[in-house]
Specification:
By secondary structure, the protein is an all-alpha fold. The termini are far apart. It has helices spanning 6-14, 16-25, 39-60, 69-88, 97-112, 129-150, 152-157, 167-206, 210-242. The protein folds into two domains: 1-37, no CATH class; 42-246, no CATH class.
């Protein structure tokens, strides 16, 4: 049984009924109805709240004449996402920047929050519900965008391959390939974050604080890298799904 974080305990003490009701809508029943909130649920809600508050503060301080440090930081982030999108997806990348940015920031903050004492990264919990959720969001997004840009019929037709007589071979291959993508995204994100967290915890328990600080710096790097790779692969999938509209 996992150790209950203090944030999770607060939710279970005061909002247990809300969680049970929401889970009931989807036909899911908590193992312990009195404590339905799991750590990963509490932490991902906290991440969302942090991002919302951050952007609320940013919005209130936006200025054309005297931009602050926070505005400069997010302008750099936006410029970076836009440049990556245009390089990978192409000219129509601006339509997808909001999704790419949301995915990147949510995963990045989810990865980084585990560095704060008494918190844990929601991306490192088994059986990887948060990475799987992000992966399914990416999977649905690029397929829906492919259908929107090409039309459902034409998009599904490309699963048949370049010539019709290859369809019996190409359709199963394409389906397996596409279904493997969310699995690959999930495993990559979860495995790297879980491994990084375990390494940091082990060294915290064995050696003085100065040495684990190095691994915490490594954890920050891995957190940033994994968020970037996840977003980058999503861009590649979107490019593959929408590239046909230019032919």
């Amino acid at each position: 049984m996992e150790h209950e974080l203090w944030v999770t305990a607060l939710l279970n003490n005061y909002l247990a009924g809300v969680a049970s009701a929401v889970l009931g809508w989807f036909g899911v029943h908590a193992h312990n109805p009195a404590r339905p909130w799991a750590n990963f649920m509490a932490m991902q809600i906290l991440v969302v709240l942090i991002i919302l508050v951050l952007f609320a503060v940013l919005r209130s301080r936006l200025s054309m004449d005297r931009p602050g440090k926070l505005q400069h930081i997010f302008e750099l982030v936006y410029d970076f996402l836009e440049a990556q999108g245009e390089e990978i997806v192409g000219r129509g990348a601006h339509r997808y920047i909001a999704f790419f940015g949301t995915l990147f920031l949510f995963i990045l903050f989810s990865n980084l929050i585990g560095i704060i004492p008494t918190f844990e990264s929601p991306t490192m919990f088994m059986p990887a519900p948060v990475p799987a959720g992000c992966a399914m969001a990416a999977f649905l997004f690029y397929n829906l965008e492919g259908m929107r840009s090409m039309g459902a019929g034409k998009y599904l037709a490309h699963f048949m391959g370049p010539v019709w007589w290859l369809a019996p071979l190409m359709i199963p291959i394409e389906i397996i390939s596409h279904l493997a993508r969310p699995m690959s995204l999930t495993i990559r994100l979860f495995a790297n974050m879980f491994a990084g967290e375990q390494v940091t915890l082990i060294f915290l328990g064995l050696v003085p604080v100065a040495i684990p600080a190095i691994f915490m710096g490594l954890h920050v790097f891995v957190s940033l890298l994994q968020a970037y790779i996840f977003m980058l692969l999503t861009m590649v999938y979107v490019q593959g799904a929408t590239a046909h509209e230019e032919h």
